[in-house]
Fold these 4 entries.
Entry 1:
Amino acid sequence: MNTKKIKNTIAKFKKADLSQVKDADLRSKGEKLQAKQGGFTLLELLVVVAILAIIAGAVISNMDGKEEGAAQATAVHTMATLENSMNIFSVAEKRTLPDGLDSLICSTGVTASGAELSVDISSLSGGTEIILSAGGNTSNLQRIHGGLTNDMYGKLQLVDVASGALNTLAENGLTSLRYALGTVCNATEDETIAGSVEDVALVDVTKPSMIFNDLVADDGEWEFGAGAAADFTDLTSMGTDTVPMAFFNEPEELGQEEEAVLVVFGVGPSADLGSVIARAPQDGNAPADKYSNFSIVVKVAECPDGESIEDFGTGDCQVADWEDVGEDMEVIAVLDAGGDAYDDEIAEAKGNEEE
């Protein structure tokens, strides 16, 4: 008997005239059962509520602390997907890198004209740059500072690279790189962006992962985006200007030799990955005011033997000393918003490593 027939039978039973039943005992039982069809008694309702409360408590107890594990599992899956997508992209597009990646850097070389922002190689040269943060202050806590997480920030090092030394990047598809307006990293209350008097301190930015996008304003008030793309198509003919980039200062953490020179790019919404990914994925573990896009690490060169990018400025791993890896340039890792690579996330998900 299906549900509909059962409901019909119960309805008929409720309306049945039990006075016609001759057996007194059977008639009494029927009348009691018929009376119960009108609803639960207060005692029965209390019992049901108590049972439901016990079940809910057991479920909540079992699920407590599992949200973070679920988020880590999602991040691991997304990182693997993004890494595979980069491999597919290089085969399909015949180039290693997409254009429109995020530099993770704020620069005074980004200039505002009304509601338009622009930047070029010459304006980046000699400007003031800072890795995305609140004036160099970072945190892993929600609504404390803003920009990159403290863990990610601590693994990056800003290096001014001679534009002529970046020919390999340009030849492998990096035709543009996005920078954010310099004042964004140092904004205070009532800071002005494109005619807006909105508070744009990074901790208050509602869409931090879109900070490198083109500026969007509504009725003169800033909505989101404070970035512009620097065109790298003429890199091969340049050599005197410098281009600020973020480099990973712990190559051994990614299974590379200490001599490896690794540059880091954020995969934001403007990244030209349309052939393999419709939208740039985000790391759900990142606090609301932090840059939550994933990043890729690209091996672009090597330092002389025994030298490391970590000692840039004091050792012999100057840009002029870099050894070009040529066709061996490759994406060697995907990082989450906390600066962890795939293996680190796997270890954290299994509880084998502290965050």
Entry 2:
Amino acid sequence: MGKDDIPHNKVLALADNGQDLKVTAVTHAQISDLCCDCLDYSNTAKSTLTAMNVEEGSGEESYAPLLAKVKSDSREFPSTLLEEHKRAARKGAIILGSFLAVFAGISIAVLQKVVAFVMGIFQ
């Protein structure tokens, strides 16, 4: 099955407030259609959506009836989450930088030994 092939017996399902749906294949075209369709529904402005394909009889043929029912997220976004993310990113950058410095030092040392060995062979 190609990346944009969905079985014919599948229809659209949508969950708001970041709720889960059973994971299924969703095409790029379906997601782009959903993003464009959301622009016509002001109730989707502050909502986290999950979109999947489900069996016939448990979904819709288009996103319109699903988007009309979307509610804004009821979960609070922790104000400290962004700062926690920034701290974690800085810490990760320091660890990665340290790893790269050690790796570069070892690589230079090995390269120097290889060059010295090769130069010794040709002298």
Entry 3:
Amino acid sequence: MAAKSSIEWTESTWNPLTGCTKISPGCKNCYAERMAARLKAMGQPNYRNGFRLTLHPHVLGLPLQWKKPQMVFVNSMSDLFHEDVPSGFIQSTFDVMRRASWHVFQILTKRSERLLHESPTLDWPPNVWMGVSVETAKYTFRIDHLRSTGAKVKFISFEPLLGPINGVDLSGVHWAIVGGESGPHSRPVSKDWIIGLRDQCVGAGVPFFFKQWGGTQKKLSGRLLDGRTWDELPHSTPEAVLGRA
């Protein structure tokens, strides 16, 4: 069975990699690092190395066994484009996603340089959605890298949002997720930062998904923004791919 996910914008997770290293401010309070420590303590064999990058070739074929079409977050516990992941392993992951064409796969990376480098070698199937994380204005260059890839559906995760991001070039972007930071020591998010990104997305016609306020604000306000939830998906929705149309 697929591992069901509590992440609001997906349904399941698939982790042929576990473990990572921190490269930018959004990594500071990494939830995957906390989870990996917990799973190691529980004796889960895939986390015997804790949060040290570990490949799990035996996990690669799992999506081919999941008959029910679903949206699958790839490597929620790692980064497929980590510098220490062999190119051949990335290719193998893409091969499985291509063959498991009844699912939609969502990949998220902070390592946009590696993504850009590998992109020409990848056969990008339409059921793979590629995203980059952008936590502050300093990292909007990741969007430029994403835009230059061959991904059919491109998205941005502004989470954890750690500052205002104005004047974003959203051309060629099909979806935006915005959220504050959750978990211990979560850093505050300003409503103005979120509203600013929402208004930019609405103006550019980019579907907007508000994930959470984060920290104590999530408990107080849930996922409401200006009195409503924002659960928009790419205009090329997964319904056709997943057979729900």
Entry 4:
Amino acid sequence: MANLEYVRISADGTQIVVRDENGREFALSMDDRLAAALIPRTSPLAGPGALTPREIQARIRAGADVAGLAEQTGTSQERIMAFAVPILQERAHIAVRARATLVRRASGVGTLDDIIVGRLQPLGVTLVETHWDARRLDDGRWEIRLSYDTKEGGRVATWLFDAKAAVVSPLDDEAHWLMGEPPAAPVRVREAATRPTLPVFHKIEEPVDNVVPMKRRDTGPVEQVFDHEEEPPETPAPGQATEPTKGSKGRRPIPSWDEILFGAPTDED
């Protein structure tokens, strides 16, 4: 009888994949009998330093695999599998939900699965050749991981999946490419693009001609203060003609009282 080791649970959570000594993989249907066989009624005894059931499930939910966890902690794979099966099924179920999430793009709306199929077909990769997995993060959201092989080598893409909001967001350039999007911009560029700009105000100088003086409304007598007093003009003697003073701008002099009564003297007088 060949010895088989656990590899993973299928992406749809309906099969468990095992591997023989020659590296060949086999899929077993996940029915009640298989689940009962994997989860015995009495769990294997814990050796010195072995993980508790709660620790096993927490680490498996965070993305650990059975073989790696057993090697790191010294806990037997039988004991880990006794508590890991329902968590592995949960991870597979979350991956299926993420793949069925609707994604809006400029070209239309489609599921993440449909979009990725269209991107992988030119590479000659089918869904059967892809492997999906999920692990829960500390904040309650999930990281979805897709791995597949191409002629150039293996590729890995990751998304952030919010199960409550049913939203998937690419986390790396490979995920952006599979969704038909350009690579993510550097953080420095994004910060510069979202930095608010301050308005620029220019001083507007209006010409003086446009200034309209405002009339002041006097509310009472105002005492006038003069810097200096001007001398009163001299009164001309009777019969003496007055000459235009400086600043009179050629105005005709005002006649005296005698000139009005007896007439103004002429040059012959």
